[in-house]
Amino acid sequence: MKTVLMTAFEPFGGEHINPSWEAVRSFEGKVIDDARIVVRQLPVVFSACGAVLTAALEELKPHRILCVGQAGGRSDISVERVAINVNDARIADNAGQQPVDEPVVAGGPAAYFATIPIKAVVAALREVGIPASVSQTAGTFTCNNVMYQLLHWLHTSGSAARGGFVHIPYMPEQAAQHPGAPSMSTASVVQALETSLRVILSTENDIRAAGGATH
């Protein structure tokens, strides 16, 4: 049976919960389209998140990988197109680290593109009534760090697996503490992630559809 690795993060930035973990942890042990789902929580620590991810990749040798993170302030499921080789932290991570203008991987390429069918995922989510879009930036915090390290590992290990990253909004209880911030229920995020997994598992070639941005 094929294996899918899903990752999510611990809380950070003064939050007591992380919506990515609240949604992703419910997939542990599930079988979707003949693929077994394995879940790992990643630390919001620049010096550790990649090591935890890499250990899981080497242990499980998954067929597909979907990493998920919180993007407070975003209003939809953001399917990330690209990860860049920069750590530039606006806030400190959970170990008090705050790298500025440092590479994720010294000597690595400037960027990697996701290898999952990002536009097919967005189209499927919209089809089931969940707001979604292609995102042109995963930021420069630990989410981008993890996405870059995932894609770097895939590129350098010779693995035929495919991987990508999805950002999700605050949960409603978080947004209540951030007046005006959008939110999405955990049930909707779980539905979105299951829909995404089915597309990722069944789609070899992405669809051709507009998904760019003007700014």
What does this structure look like?
There is one protein chain. By secondary structure, the chain is of the alpha/beta class. The protein has one domain (2-202): 3-Layer(aba) Sandwich (Aminopeptidase). Helices cover 32% and strands 21% of the residues. It has six helices and nine strands; from the N terminus they run βαββαββββαβαβαα. It has helices spanning 19-24, 46-60, 118-127, 142-157, 172-175, 186-202, and strands at 2-9, 31-32, 35-42, 64-70, 77-80, 82-84, 111-113, 132-135, 162-168. The strands form two sheets. Strands 2-3-1-4-9-5-8 form a seven-stranded mixed beta sheet, with helices on both faces. β2 (31-32) and β3 (35-42) form a beta hairpin. α2 (46-60) runs parallel beside α4 and α3 crosses α6. The N and C termini lie far apart (42 Å). The model has no long low-confidence stretch (mean pLDDT 97).
Please give the CATH class. Answer: Alpha Beta
Number of domains: 1
What would you call the structural class? Answer: alpha/beta
List unreliable stretches of 5+ residues: none
Spatial gap, N to C terminus:
42 Å
Average pLDDT for all residues:
97
- Describe the main β-sheet briefly: 7 strands, mixed
Order of adjacent strands in the largest pleated sheet: 2-3-1-4-9-5-8
The 3D shape can be described as: globular
* Succession of helices and strands: EHEEHEEEEHEHEHH
How many beta-strand segments? 9
CATH T-level topology: Aminopeptidase
Helix count from the secondary structure assignment? 6
Helix % is 25-40%
